[in-house]
Write the structure tokens for this entry.
Amino acid sequence: MNALAARFAAHNVGSIFLYTHEAHPGEFYPHLTSMEQKYKHAAALRDVLGVTRPIVLDSLDGACHRAYGSMPNMTWIFNRSGVPIYKSDWTDHHSVANALEYFIDVVDRRRARQRLAPFRVERLDYRNQDQEAFYAGLARNGPKAVEEFRQAFP
């Protein structure tokens, strides 16, 4: 997502990472109990995963996360007026890039004085599943995270 943010920055597209909570807490990154701890976890996320976008911390009770759907890995795109123009229950760079390209084209069409009327679309996108990378991420949180996930999804 860092590369995608950099690619679209020239189009005045901003990108942030909203840090909500530990999806799979473990011994190394346990369940969050304070904003100080949350700040440290977010700094580790930045350093370990190389997140270059601004990281914004949700409140400890996850108010922002709940307000926007509570899904584990969501992406939202808002226009300059703050209107949501894209919502995905999973972050996938192909899907996000496709949406950004489309909405940049909409801006160009409006500049060309085309009369455009909005409409809603629902579609099913697909993402690559990398089990090895997923379990490596769980292992970063600690053995407890790996074991609890394996028990929940044998």
